[in-house]
Amino acid sequence: MLTDRIGRITPSATLVMTAKAAELRAAGKPVINLSVGEPDFPTPENIRNAGKRAIDEGHTRYTPEGGTLELKKAVVKKLSRDNDLHYDTSQILISCGGKHSLYNACQALFQSGDEVIIFSPYWVSFPDFVSVTGAKPIFVNTDPARQFEPVMDDLKAKITSRTKGIIINSPSNPTGGVWSDEAVLKVLEIAETAGVWVFSDECYEQLTYDRTYISTAMLGENTEKVLTFQSCSKTYAMTGWRIGYTAGDEKVIKAMGKLQGQSTSCPSSIAQVAAIEALIGDQSEVTIMRNVFKKRRDYIVTRLNEMNGVHCDTPGGAFYVFPDFSSYMGDDRNIQSSNDLSMYLLEQKAVVTVAGKAFGSDGNVRFSYAASDEDLARAMDLVEETLKELE
Ligand SMILES: Cc1ncc(COP(=O)(O)O)c(C=O)c1O
Question: What domains lie within the chain, and their CATH numbers?
Answer without folding.
Answer: 4-42+285-390 (3.90.1150.10), 45-280 (3.40.640.10)
